[in-house]
Each structure stands twice: as C-alpha cells, then as structure tokens.
Design brief:
It comes from Halolactibacillus miurensis. InterPro entries: MCPsignal_dom. Keywords: Membrane, Transducer, Transmembrane, Transmembrane helix. This is Chemotaxis protein. The chain is mostly helical and about 600 residues long. The chain has ten helices and no strands. α5 runs antiparallel to α6. The longest helix has about 100 residues. The radius of gyration is 59 Å and the shape is rod-shaped.
Length: about 600
C-alpha cells in the first residue's frame, strides 16, 4: 500500500473530537445540578438552627423556672422582713409596757426608740415592694399608723424622766394605744401571713408547673436535637459513600484499561461532575491512542517504501560502479595500443550509451527518492503537529485531575467543619451535664439526655474519621492517576523529540538527493564530452590519444563521484533503518 492511498484512508476516516463549546455547555449544565455542597451547607445550617432553637427553648423555660424561684425567694425574704417588723413592734410594745409599769428607765427608753426606728426602716423597705393595688397595701396602712402612734408615744412621753402621778397619767394614755396597736398588729400579722402563704403556694404551683413544662419541652428539644442531626448525617454519609463508590468504579475500569466504560446510572452532584470529566478524559485518551496508532502505521509504511527504494538505489549504484571499472579497464587498453582504436572507440561508444542510459535510469530513481523524501518530510511535520496537540491535551487533562484533587481537599475541609460542630455539641452536652448536676434530683433526666448528646457527638466524630479515611483513599487514587498522566506526558514529549529527529532526517535525505541530482547532471555532461571525444577520434589519432587520456581522467572523476554517491546512499539507508526503528517504538 503506497503513501498516497494511506493519506486517502486518513481523510475518509477522520478522528472526531468533542468541540470546546459542547464541552463547556455540558459542564455548565452539570454545574447547575451540583447539590452535594448545598446539602452539606444545608445540613450544617439545620444543625446550627436546631441547636439555636433548642438553646432558646431551654433558656426560655429555664428563665421561667428561675423567675418562679426568684419569686419564692422574694416571698421568703418578704416574710422574714415582715416577721422582723412584727418582732420590733412587739418589742416596742413590751418596752412601753415596762416603762409605764416600772417607771422611767433610760436603757428601756433607748431600746424602745431603737426598736421603733428599726421597725420604721423595715417598714419602708417592705412598703416600697408593695403596689397600691396589692391586697397587702391596706394592711400596711394600718401598720404605718401603728408605727406612727408608737413614734408619737415615744416623742411625747418617753423622751424625759417621769415619776409619780405623771407615770399614772402616761400609763392611762399609753396603755389603750398599745393594746389597740397590739391587736392591729396581731390582725395584720395573721392576714399578711395568710396572704403570704397563699402567694407562696401559688408561686410554688407556678414553679412546679414551669418545671414540668420545662422538662417536657427540654426533653422534646433534646430529642429533636439528637434525631434530626443523626438522620441528616446518616443520609449525607450514605450519599457521600455512594458518590465515592461511583467515581472509584470508573477509576477501577480505567486502571484495567477500559477507557470506554459507561456508568449504569447518573448523578447530579460533584461526584457526577467528576465522573463526567473522567468520562471525557477517557474518550479523548482512547481517540488519541487510536490516532497515534494510525499515524505510526502510516509512518511504518512510508519507511518501508523508502527502505525498498533505497535498497534498489544502492543496487543501481553498485551496478554503475562495476560498469565504470570495466570502462576504465577498456580505456587503459586503448591508451596502450593505438592499433585497437577503432574497436576501443566502438566499445567506448557503446559503453557511453550504456552509461547515459544508466545515468538516466539513476536520475529517475533519484527523482523518485526526492519525491518520497519530501512526502516523508510533510508526513513527519504533520506527525509533529499531532504530537504537539497530544502533549497539550495531556497537560490539560493533568490540570483537570489537579482540579479534582483540589475539590476533594475542599470536601475534607467541609468534614472538618462537621468535626467542629461535633465538638461544639460535645461541649453543649458537658455544660448540660454540669447544669443537671447542679439541679440535683430534678436534673437526672436532663443528665441522661446530655449523655445521649455526648454519645451522638462521639458517633459523629467516628463518622467523620471514617469519611476522612475514604477521602484519603480517593486522594491516593487521584494522585496515582496524576502520576500516570505525568508519565504519559513525558513519553509524549519523548515521541515528539523523536518525530523532530525524523523530520530532520528527511530534510537531510532531501538535501542529499539534491546533491545527487546535481552530480548526475555533471555525469551526464561528462558522458556528452566522451561522445564528442569519440567523434573526434576518427579525424585524428593524436586527438584520439589526447581525448582518451582526458576521458580516462574524467572516468576517474566519475568513479570518485560514484564512490561518494555510494557512501551517501549507505548513510541514507542507515537513516531510513533508524526511522523505521523510531516508528516501531512509536507504535509500541
């Protein structure tokens, strides 16, 4: 099969590559379908939202319980202060009775004045905490009147010494007021104590209700905090696991040499995009390998044809060399004996004709070799362009693999975010355990829930570690693919260098053929001169002898030229063999 028929087959069966616009359109369409990162963002947002809601609910109902507890504390403090107020008023009454019954006593008077002052201070503090619409307001009005009466009694009667009748008059004025105030204090005390008991009971019921409601709501919130993230993480882990298997299945088939592998189902997330890029890469590599094999086969055919022509040319050169040796011997005989000039002239004429015929045949062969060399040069130039395109596409594919490795690192950072959320959940569980320990018996249920949250956090950490191991394995596979493409790129560059060398060899062959053509032209001129010399032999023996001598010299030059041509032809044969070996390595 000739080189021209090979070119025709190449045109009839072109290699089809995917257009860049079509690839960009498919890539944009797939990018719109990516959902894995969005799912991860949604999962993180959902977990954070549930944590915030649970914390808000727990804080709200804890605040209600705290408010009820503060109300109880305020009621207890109020009751304690009111008890102190009643004690001070009773102490004042006792001191007043002592003064009107036993006579003036400075210490008793000072104690009475101190008690009434303390009672006024306590009363003012309590009165500030009571609203006008409170049921206790009217009672405190009576207490205010009693304190004012006691102060008035002290200011009017016990600020100076009294004895005798003055003591009796003071006793008659003071005793009814003291008895009335004691009765008022007793009535107010009983009513206020009763009211405080009712208020404390209501607050206790409110606190108990708040505790029960808080326990139920906190339990529900914590259950949601456990179940929703657990289900979400399980679904995300399942999707991630299937995605990794999806990509690893294609990588496995590529590793086994199946570049035409097709997935049974499609995905619309990042793993689907990775599989799409790997699929496009596999198709391009398969097409490039097929085209490389076709080009290598064409190069081998051209090299074989060139080798055949070179061998024929070498055989022709050997024939010419033998012929020129014979012709030289004949010319020496002609120089030795002028008596055989005629016969020698005829032989020289015949030999010249044979030489001219051989030269014409050799010139035709050289033209064929020149044509083949030029075609080989054009073919090697096209092969060099193809190897350049193959090297560029290999480098582009390597960059895409590097982009896939970057995206896997991005997914690893997302998994690190899940670890951070798990750590925060664990910290929340620890804080909940501390709060449950502070709550004592009532916080046992809360402590159990906190333990469950801690277990969930530990399970999340375990899942994150397993996911990291899977991603690490995937990264190793991707790195292996990258190394494979780097090796392929190096081999492609080596093939490109060898193609350049082959192009240089064809250029050398073309230059040598040009020189051979020029030398053939010179040989033809020499043969024409021989023919002219033979015609001049008939006119003059002297001229014939001189012409024979000149012809012998020309024959020596022709012999030297033929020897040089044989050496060049031998070098051409060696170069053709080297080109054939290079083409064979290209096929391999």
């Amino acid at each position: 099969m000739t080189m021209f028929s090979k070119k025709k087959e190449t045109k009839e069966h072109p290699i089809r590559f995917f257009s860049k616009d079509k690839m960009k359109t498919n890539t944009k369409k797939k990018v719109k379908d990516r959902k894995l990162i969005h799912r991860l963002y949604g999962l993180i947002a959902l977990i954070v939202f549930i944590c915030v809601i649970a914390a808000a609910v727990i804080f709200t109902y804890s605040s209600k319980v705290e408010e009820a507890s503060q109300s109880l504390d305020q009621s207890a403090r109020f009751q304690q202060q009111f008890s102190d107020l009643v004690t001070e008023l009773n102490t004042t009454s006792i001191k007043y009775y002592q003064l009107v019954s036993s006579g003036y006593d400075k210490n008793a008077a000072e104690d009475a004045e101190s008690s009434i002052s303390n009672a006024r201070v306590i009363f003012d503090e309590l009165n500030q905490t009571i609203h006008e619409d409170s049921p206790l307001h009217n009672y405190f009005v009576n207490l205010d009147t009693a304190i004012a009466d006691y102060r008035s009694i002290y200011d009017e009667n016990f600020t100076s010494i009294f004895v005798g009748d003055e003591q009796n008059r003071i006793a008659m004025r003071v005793t009814p007021v003291i008895e009335r105030n004691l009765q008022v204090i007793e009535n107010v005390n009983s009513r206020i104590v009763e009211q405080l008991a009712l208020d404390r009971e209501a607050v206790s019921e409110e606190m108990e209700s708040a505790l029960q409601t808080s326990s139920v709501v906190i339990m529900v919130a914590l259950v949601m905090l456990i179940i929703v993230p657990l289900i979400s993480l399980t679904l995300f882990a399942s999707s991630l696991k299937h995605g990794v298997r999806y990509v690893m299945d294609r990588i496995k088939h590529y590793h086994e040499g199946d570049l035409t592998f097709t997935q049974g189902q499609s995905r619309h997330d990042e793993f689907g995009l990775i599989d799409l890029r790997l699929s496009e890469m596999g198709e391009r590599l398969d097409q490039l390998m097929k085209r490389s094999q076709m080009v290598a086969a064409e190069v081998i055919d051209v090299v074989k044809t060139t080798a055949t022509q070179s061998n024929k040319q070498m055989q022709g050169m050997e024939d010419i060399e033998q012929m020129m040796q014979t012709f030289n011997e004949e010319m020496e005989k002609q120089a030795d004996s002028t008596g055989t000039i005629s016969a020698t002239t005829e032989e020289v004429s015949a030999s010249a004709e044979e030489i001219q015929t051989s030269m014409h045949h050799m010139n035709t062969r050289l033209q064929e070799v020149k044509t083949i060399s030029n075609d080989g040069k054009d073919l090697m130039t096209a092969l060099e362009s193809t190897m350049h395109a193959l090297s560029t596409q290999t480098h582009s594919t390597k960059q895409r693999i590097d982009s896939i490795e970057s995206k896997l690192d991005h997914i690893t950072s997302f998994i690190q975010g899940i670890d951070d959320i798990a750590d925060q959940t664990n910290l929340l569980a620890i804080n909940a355990s501390i709060e449950a320990a502070k709550a004592g018996k009532e916080g046992r249920t809360f402590a159990v829930v906190a333990d469950e949250i801690r277990k969930l956090s530990q399970g999340t950490n375990t899942f994150s570690d397993q996911t990291k191991e899977v991603l690490a394995s995937l990264l190793e596979e991707v790195e292996a693919v990258v190394k494979t493409f780097e090796t392929f790129e190096v081999q492609t560059n080596q093939s490109l260098d060898q193609t350049k060398q082959s192009t240089a060899l064809f250029e050398t062959i073309a230059v040598d053929n040009s020189r051979l053509t020029q030398e053939q032209s010179e040989i033809n001129q020499s043969v024409e001169q021989i023919n002219v010399a033979i015609e001049d032999v008939a006119s003059s023996v002297t001229e014939l002898a001189n012409g024979a001598t000149g012809l012998q010299e020309k024959i020596k030059e022709v012999t030297n030229i033929i020897e040089d041509q044989a050496k060049r032809q031998q070098a051409l044969t060696t170069n053709v063999n080297s080109l054939e070996s290079t083409a064979g390595r290209l096929v391999e």
